[in-house]
Amino acid sequence: MTVLKVFFTKILRILRPSREVPAMAHPFNTIVSPCDLFAIAFPEGSDQPEISSESTLNALKDASHRLVKELACVAFPTETVYGLGALALDADAASRIFSTKGRPADNPLIVHVSSFAMLHRLLPSGYVMPKTYEILTQRFWPGPLTLLFPSDRAVIPSIITAGQPTVAIRMPSHPVARALIAIADAPLAAPSANSSGKPSPTRAEHVQRDLNGKVGLVLDGGPCDVGLESTVVDGLHDDGHIRVLRPGGVTVEAIERALVDGLGDEGQALKVLVHKRDYRDDAVEQAPTTPGMKYRHYSPSIPVTLLVTSGTPPPDVIPVSVEDWVSSLQSHSDPSQRLKVGLLAPSDSPVARRLLAMDIVDWISHPLGPVTEPSISAQRLFDGFLTLEREGADLIVMEELEEKNEGLAIMNRARKADNTTVWVVHA
Ligand code: TXA
Ligand code: MG
């Protein structure tokens, strides 16, 4: 029962209206320009896009002009989440990313390229990629995989790497992202296009709502396919093993399969190690080189409670039934008002069915798709946080998912967003 008491004290503290923060100056009139991703093609063997829609071409040219000539930030879609881009090789341009997002300066940025030729222009001269990187880039680029490379200090400004000896690089597969980089003919630094600490945006309207007045242009390429950020991989260690610093759009299982396919027995011997699951790295944890290690991330402005339905709770925790839990949730809040509770759970979840049957709070459900399809849950997670927040939920309840395939990245984000964890009785 002490656990419940602690939980409610926390929830009530969070539900209390927060202190008013003075509004930021809004120097921009934010324009949202639609782009038709199906009007963009990269012909086989070419790094240059062919664009068959005049309005899309004009939007991309406008974006490129702002980036290259005005050194401004532009928000654009990628297959993972929307990015806030600026010229990566210009320290002044890149510094605007930090001021626009309110991002701490010691959190390094990912550099986005549109071609292998552009990648090689960024790497130290004569640099030879490890065999594992050849396999991973061949299999997953363009796509949601970020790789660490040695950083050439003469090329990459230190504001990008936060002074680290490595630089994170990825080649996005979203046609709008890739075309924009190709037309600007310059690598773009791009974190997710949200105020620091908030969930990453997966639709243009998420960016517009969050960064309205702070960014001049948002290219609208529709909802992001993957819905979670790229997988960040460090394969530069002498032992040759692949270290996953942040699970993301490319699953650990897919990386393992690609290495075995590409390297045979040698691939079998290589390990794919997930930070905090398979290894710890004190040096990395002291420096905020990977998301969530130092700073709060992915958090909506309303509290998130994670419902844990599997595993063994800590010795001092007594699991509760979902019915008891919801009843006490309502009875501990303002009796004149029903709580509005956002629910993120698989569409076929028995726990969700039981929760939704409890007609003592108002539920707003944002189903995460079938439990067997974690890629759909990934696509809907951040959208769910942001939609439930916008729809006026008082709090969000999320059911844990199995940490397999995309489930690993989903739970990584959910744990960083959650304020409270509640163990519920299985059955
Ligand atoms: O999918 C994505 O990766 C999206 C889209 C826009 O491409 N971008 C994104 O960027 O998620 P951001 O800044 O939100 O997350 C990138 C993370 C940083 O938090 C940082 O910790 C890690 O990548 N990172 C960047 N450079 C690094 C480095 N040199 N060593 C280790 N981690 C690094
Ligand atoms: Mg981010």
Keywords:
disordered N terminus, 5-stranded parallel β-sheet, 9-stranded mixed β-sheet, 427 residues, alpha/beta, binds magnesium ion, single chain
Strand content: 15-25%
- Number of helical elements: 15
Total E-strand runs: 18
- Assign a percent range to the helix content: 25-40%
Describe the structure.
This protein is an alpha/beta fold and 427 residues long. It has helices at residues 2-15, 54-68, 91-101, 116-122, 131-140, 158-161, 175-184, 204-211, 252-263, 265-269, 282-286, 322-331, 350-356, 374-390, 406-417; strands at residues 31-34, 40-41, 50-51, 74-76, 83-87, 110-112, 145-150, 166-170, 188-189, 217-220, 231-234, 242-246, 272-274, 304-308, 340-344, 362-365, 395-399, 420-423. It has a nine-stranded mixed β-sheet with strand order 4-5-9-6-8-7-11-12-13, sandwiched between helices. The protein has a five-stranded parallel β-sheet with strand order 16-15-17-14-18, with helices on both faces. The protein has a two-stranded parallel ribbon with strand order 1-10. β2 and β3 (50-51) form a beta hairpin. α2 (54-68) crosses α7 (175-184), α5 (131-140) crosses α9 (252-263) and α14 runs parallel beside α15 (406-417). 45% of the residues are buried. Mean pLDDT is 91; it is low at 1-6 and 12-24. The chain binds threonylcarbamoyladenylate and magnesium ion. Threonylcarbamoyladenylate binds next to β7 and β8. Magnesium ion is lined by residues 191-192, 200.
